[in-house]
Amino acid sequence: MAFNSIFLLFSLLSLLHLHSSAAQSSVKAVYWFPDNEFPASNIDSTLFTHLFCAFADVDPTTYQVTVASQNTNAFSTFTTTVQQKNPSVKTLLSIGGGGSADIKNHFSSMASQPNSRKTFIDSAINLARSYNFHGLDLDWEYPATDIDMTNLGVLLKEWRDAVVAESSNSGKAPLLLTAAFYYAPKIESRSYPIDSITTNLDWVNAMAYDFYGPSWSQVTRAPAALYDKESQYNGNYGVVAWIQAGLPAKKLVLGFPFYGKAWRLVNADNHGLFAPTNGAANGEGIESDGAMQYKQIKQFMAQNGAATVFDASIVGDYCYAGTTWIGYDDTQSISTKVSYAKGKGLLGYFAWHVAADDNWVLSQLG
User: Which of 6, 116, 243, 336 is 20 to 30 A from 364 via CA?
Assistant: First the structure.
């Protein structure tokens, strides 16, 4: 009887150790992509626990996961490169992205059939292993129908099963499996498959940004507010909604941007929140949709003597000079969001994207 008790206790302790070692303790992550002319070797990987390499593609005919030829070397050496500064940092290959309107259709078609799902899953795992990534990240922006959402749930289940089987056969640690999703568990009337997400993903990256921009808002608004009494488009709403829908807080990672949005004011003297605008501002570093990297925002502020405002009620920053108005997150907003994530018991936080930071000012927070 004593031997049996000791054996059972040892077995229980072993299982608990395996579970705790497999569980993710915390996440401080950022996305990187090669098109920004910021080499992976420039990343200070000591500031992060996880790095996402973006983006692999989905072949619209075969549904295999592929990497564009011009990115092959950068992707295949990414893990080796970033681990030179931080051997413990984990890397994930992110698939998809919001850059192409066709990607959403490719995901929808792929997820609709068992054979195409299997091709996608197997090729993703093989690619991740051949490039020495520690995990895979799904960035489907966004499932457009209820059928898409149902198929997403099936895809995640089959993907997890394949990851477990591959690990068992290879003797390697299972690949991490994550996804970048909408900031809230519903997109209009379409609900994410919470049960499948909870069971099959290691965590969800909630994209709590791009709430407003000059392309669709006629007045100045905070692009990534943590709170907003005027609408549901804010990070806190999304976090609370995900948790109320059934996603454990420890499977939720809060996203924030290392970039802002620049509007053109109708009247330079009316420069607060909700000020009338007439589209995106023009100027150095401002993209056609008004997007502007944090480091470029700081340059604009210095060169133009811009006035700056931190609004604690929404947790968001803005600056203005002349008719240019920029909503963004500065150090106080990011620090507050980091504290919020910890206070809510979330798994952690991530940012898009690493090259937009200004000498690691934002990345060092938290």
Answer: 243
Catalytic residue among 37, 141, 188, 284: 141
- Please name the helix (run of DSSP H) or strand (run of DSSP E) that holds residue 82, with its range, or none: helix 78-82
Mean pLDDT of the chain: 93
Residue 260 burial by CB count (10 A; 0-12/13-18/19+): exposed, middle or buried? buried
Mapped onto helix, strand or coil, the DSSP state of residue 324 is: strand
N-to-C CA span, the chain: 51
Nearby residues of 216 by Cβ (< 8 Å), 6 or more positions away: none
Predicted confidence (pLDDT) per residue in 151-207, tens digit = 999 999 999 999 999 999 999 999 999 999 999 999 999 999 999 999 999 999 999
Distances (CA, A) of 40 to 44, 75, 83, 282, 353: 9, 9, 10, 30, 12
- Partners of 328 in the beta sheet? 317
**Does residue 281 lie in a domain region?**
no
DSSP 39-77: -GGG--GGG-SEEEEEEEEE-TTT--EE--GGGHHHHHT
d(CA 327, CA 330): 10
Q: 99-119 in b/e burial notation, b at 16+ Cβ within 10 A?
A: eeeebbebbbebbeeeebbeb
Q: Is the pLDDT of residue 41 over 60?
A: yes
Phi and psi angles of residue 283, each rounded to the nearest 5 degrees, phi first = 150, 175
Question: Which CATH number covers residue 249?
Answer: 3.20.20.80
Give me the domain span that covers residue 234: 24-257+329-356
Domain assignment present for residue 251? The answer is yes
CB 269 within 8 A of CB 329: no
Count of the separate structural domains present in the chain: 1
How many other CB atoms are there within 10 angstroms of residue 57's CB atom?
18
Our answer to whether residue 158 is catalytic in this structure is no
Q: What is the pLDDT of residues 83-93, one digit of tens each?
A: 999 999 999 99
**Which contacts (CB < 8 Å, 24+ apart) does range 304-309 have?**
307/271
Gyration radius of the chain's alpha carbons: 22
Say how far apart CA 51 and CA 279 lie, in whole Å: 34
CB-CB contact of 53 with 133 (8 Å): yes
Residue 263 is assigned to a structural domain of this protein:
no
* Res. 6: pLDDT tops 70: no
